[in-house]
Amino acid sequence: MALDADLQEKKNNLSEFVFLTKSILNYLPAVITNQKDKGDYRIYLNEQAGVRKFIRPINLKFFVHDSNDFEVKYQAFLTILLRIKNGERNFSNDELLVIDQTLYTIQQSIGAGLDLLVNPNSARKHVGNRFEELIKCVFTEIGVSNKKTVLQIPYETDEGQKVYKCENDLILSPFDKVKSTSKSLDKKEIVVSVKTTSKDRMGKMFIDKILLERFVKHDQKVIGIFLNDVQRKEEDNISFTLVSGLFMVYSNFLTELEGVYYLDPPPNAKKEPYNKYMKSFSNLITQDVWRLLAS
């Protein structure tokens, strides 16, 4: 399959993601014509026949550029996932980094490939879809039952009853099969919002939690999973898009989420008081998800 077509195909397991990642890592060096570094981030440029295409900012602390190095990292990652599935919960900082680096490299490789090879409007949709599929594959790999659901909430209008469809990117369950349906949510399960960035989406998580709890008439665990909160600014700069003050206002005056997790956390996520709510994705799959599912 051609690389541009493969980027737009649904992925069902980690092996499919890894094959695609290696293809992109081998492709990129041949098409990069310039690069600019800003802090931990690098902005790559492809320029051909007067057409300039920028790749989304890449965090050099997490991205593995060489396909052979990535294969080594991926095998270590698989071993860690198996240990998690078998009940191990304590991992070193280096092992946690392997989790975040592997997944970050997969997702940002896909993003880079889409930036270069696919129409921007279509690319945005596929970046988000691949991220949802990647996160789903990880939870399946560690033995957490999961599925995507659409909760159908009826409401009355002058034209009769209509239905608002509240789409939940993922439901995580402590049971063998997810119990939540289109009409109800199980109290022990976790509703997950999976987005590449919180930009323009953070508020919806809080509103959805309030809406869901009022409809199902019980407390509901809700978490967010994001790739990052950084974007390119002009040709050689970056800006962080996390509106941290607004996050704290929502948390204090609307409702409190059970957690927000990043593959590439923005700087504020590591500072007080945000670090009480925001962590790396590796913390979620090694520790927090098991605590949340047990509560």
Please explain how this structure is put together.
It is a single chain. The chain has 295 residues and is of the alpha/beta class. The protein folds into two domains: 3-140, no CATH class; 145-294, no CATH class. Helices cover 43% and strands 26% of the residues. It has eight helices and twelve strands. The strands form three sheets. Strands 5-6-7-8-11-12 form a six-stranded mixed β-sheet, with helices on both faces. Strands 1, 2, 3 and 4 form a four-stranded antiparallel β-sheet that branches. The protein has a two-stranded antiparallel sheet with strand order 9-10. A hairpin with a 2-residue loop joins β2 (41-48) and β3. The protein is globular.
Q: Helices and strands in order, then pairings?
A:
Elements: H1 3-7, H2 14-31, E1 34-38, E2 41-48, E3 51-54, E4 58-59, H3 67-85, H4 93-117, H5 120-141, E5 145-157, E6 160-173, E7 190-195, H6 202-216, E8 221-228, E9 230-233, E10 237-240, H7 244-253, E11 259-264, E12 278-280, H8 281-294
The fraction of residues in strands falls at: 25-35%
Q: What is the string of SSEs from the N terminus onward?
A: HHEEEEHHHEEEHEEEHEEH
The level of helicity is 40-55%
Q: What is the strand arrangement across the widest sheet?
A: 5-6-7-8-11-12
